[in-house]
Amino acid sequence: MTAIRELPFEEARPIALGRTANFIVSIAILLTFSQAWVFPILGDKGNAAASGLVRNLFFPAYGLGLILLATSLSQSFRAVLRQPFLIALMAIVTASILWSVAPDQTERRVIAILATTLCGVVIVAQRSWAELTSLLATTYAILVVLCFAFAILLPSIGIMHEIFPGAWRGVWSEKNHLGGDMTLAVCIFASAAVLNPRQRILWVVFVVLAIVLILLSTSKTSLVAAALGLGGLVFVLLVQRGAIMAVLVTWITVVTVGSVAAFVLLAPHVFFDLLGKDATFTGRTNVWGPILRQVEQRPWTGFGYGAVWTEEGRWGPLPWIVKQAGFRAQHAHNAWLEQLLGMGIPGLAAFILMQVQFLIASIVSAYRNNGGYLGLSFILCYTLMCITESIAVNYNDFRWVLFTAIAVKLCWPDREAQAY
Length: 420
Hints:
The chain has 19 helices and no strands. The protein is mainly alpha-helical.
């Protein structure tokens, strides 16, 4: 009798869904986390019953993520091991239940952020860079079409009327959300055009449509971020044209970045005018001071993941922040302050180290492989957006899924991605 050879762990392959089924499942996950359906359900005012329904509608995405995990268990496990700061960050998020000012809320949201992060990992475990950009571009193409459809056919939803009247918001609740998402879409469409030559014309068209949506949202910061992201992609295109070109472009880039930094430091008022902001970033800095004063009370632990902005009890920091800021903010309006407030110095350090690892891996990939096209353009946009928006480590959030997915993929080269 012929002996049955037992495959070692690293060669064993799980039962696969198949390319088409995997693609469809991944699209469903991404569209769920895009929250493009939330605002049409809740409307401007929202209600408690609808909010409960919205929370429950994320569970199918969690389930689909577990299905993808079952089909790529060993790949996902080995890929995430290369992101030690992501592991540390999730450990700190989970541990914050112990010291949270609202442990019941933190516990629910910890489950949500772990599931959200897992979905980011599993959608890249078996994909090359070309396949990943195609997947993300397809998702954003659907969202772009929906934004135009709602603004044109249902302007009561797609266009703002009370605050910033006339500004487009597409399928989201306000214009900055549309502008921010379309900024990332520009990077993804442009990367897909480079890495998928047969679909290049299609993705270039969507680059233009995404830029149009940014303009219609009237978000100048998003427009600057999109330009920065495209600049990063052009940098990668040039440095991969040979050693001499790489040296020349690198030198020019270093000089340019240094000059821009000096310009911002010496003439900040001109910089703010270009962004369409004042020195307070449209009032955002008014909440940063009160946040830092609250952080002084718990610098090493923070107040618990996801607990600050909905806990109004006397032991929480929110009443003090509202009193000192003079208005009620929905978040910290800064991704780094958000981590500091919720998880203290260790949580902030884990996120910053993950972000630095992302940036370094993107720069290395820019000179060595295809990962630099999406990685570098994305991290440049994402980092700029972190200054004024709390877009990091957010549960049920599309942007955190994208950040996690690309960060993991940068440490998981195409040659190690298993076929379906």
